[in-house]
Design a protein that fits this description.
Aspartate Aminotransferase, domain 2; binds pyridoxal-5'-phosphate; Aspartate Aminotransferase, domain 1; seven-stranded mixed β-sheet
């Protein structure tokens, strides 16, 4: 049986940015990486490639790696989400941020507006602005401890834009959108003739009974204009292996994409990434269920913590992802709350401002670690908050 838990000593010895960047004096709860050992089936498959020095041009199941990954993706979508996909509509790429840049450049022109939801995963902004496009933010609404899409705002924003860059489930709020919401958003995109680029890297992390619904699976009309982005990087802790897929919901969309990026221009798939991804998708189910249980445990602990500090902290209950998006505005701090928690508690959360200036009072907390380490993170955050109370309301 796999044991995904890594101890603090093991984590501190790793080279990954999450633990190495701020050093041993800080507990990291920032970048969206997990603190878990990958499934044994994956590490064994990679070890076999290394032991056999099997690094040449490769085939899997009788085809080159790109088509093999397309087939593995189609099987994954069918088995996990009940969505039938044509493997020929899949393109292997290195990572989802590359997918974001590519779709922005293929489906909009320099100077065009591209619409995102706020709060916004920062590489969406980079993909838009570094490509010479203009980012237009449709801010999500917050009420009764829940985030939802502002559909009127979306309609207005898409009036002058050819592309909606959508994050589903949503980083950082942890919202997984319902079929009705996706249908309403999709209808607006159809009405305004916009392409939908749906980043579904978080799709596997459904924490309660609801199922993830691939945006392109909602209706054939929506599929026709939807590019889906997905990988095993987030779910199986394989981000460093750089392997992802883009799926085009129609041949016309795929042709438009290839008019900007001919099929081979983005490079081929990497043997280690394809091996790890396909093995994880085929054999990682039990491992992933263990990981989801750990995330649920930490989510409960975070809920208890928020209850304790409910007069000063506010957050929606995430039903997806391993992220908790916490409004610290009522602390009355004169500095970004992530700075305060880092200095006073020795814990590193992601600053809200990374998701847009309007979100400066927030922090994003990462639940994907052992319950033992997560308890320590909360204890240190609590100490910082208790010291603040002792120093007065605006200490
Ligand atoms: C919504 C979203 N898309 C993409 C990524 C990064 O994907 P990749 O490492 O494949 O570029 C992340 C990582 O946190 C993410 O949250």
């Amino acid at each position: 049986m796999d044991n995904p838990i890594l101890t603090r000593a093991e984590l501190e010895a790793r080279r990954g940015a999450k633990w190495a960047y701020f050093g041993p004096d800080h507990l990291p709860s920032w970048v969206a990486d997990m603190d878990f050992r990958a499934p044994e089936a994956v590490t064994e498959a990679l070890a076999r490639l290394v032991a056999e020095s099997d690094f040449g041009y490769a085939i899997r199941g009788g085809t080159l790696l790109g088509p093999a990954l397309g087939r593995a993706f189609a099987a994954r979508m069918r088995d996990r989400f009940g969505w039938e996909v044509d493997p020929a509509r899949v393109l292997a790429c290195t990572d989802l941020v590359q997918g974001v840049f590519d779709t922005v450049q293929a489906f909009s022109a320099p100077g065009d507006e591209v619409v995102v939801q706020g709060p916004t995963y920062d590489p969406f902004r980079e993909g838009i602005e570094d490509s010479g496009r203009v980012m237009v933010v449709d801010h999500m609404r917050y009420a009764d401890r829940g985030w939802s899409v502002d559909l009127d705002g979306l309609r207005a924003a898409l009036r002058d834009s050819p592309l909606l860059l959508f994050c589903h489930p949503h980083n950082p709020t942890g919202r997984a959108f319902t079929r009705d919401e996706l249908l309403a958003i999709g209808e607006i995109a159809i009405e305004q003739d916009a392409v939908i680029a749906s980043d579904e890297i978080w799709a596997d992390f459904m924490l309660d009974s609801a199922q993830h619904i691939p945006f392109a699976s909602v209706s054939p009309e929506i599929a026709e204009r939807t590019v889906t982005m997905y990988s095993a990087g987030k779910s199986f802790g394989l981000a460093g292996l750089r392997c992802a897929v883009l799926h085009f919901g129609s041949a016309a969309l795929q042709e438009r994409f290839h008019a900007t990026f001919p099929p081979r221009m983005l490079g081929g798939a990497n043997i280690m990434g394809v091996e790890a991804t396909t093995v994880a998708w085929e054999s990682g189910h039990a491992w992933f269920e263990q990981v989801l249980d750990i995330i649920r445990t930490n989510r409960s602990r975070m809920e208890a913590f928020l209850e304790q500090y409910g007069d000063r902290l506010d957050a929606a209950y995430p039903t997806s992802t391993y992220l908790y998006w916490v409004d610290c505005g009522r602390l009355g701090l004169e500095e970004p709350p992530a700075e305060f928690f880092k200095r006073e508690g020795g814990v590193v959360f992601t600053p809200g401002a990374e998701f847009g200036a309007a979100y400066a009072p927030f922090v994003r907390v990462n639940l994907a670690t052992s319950p033992e380490i997560f308890d320590q993170i909360l204890a240190q955050a609590a100490k910082a908050l208790d010291n603040l109370s002792a120093a007065g309301p605006h200490g």
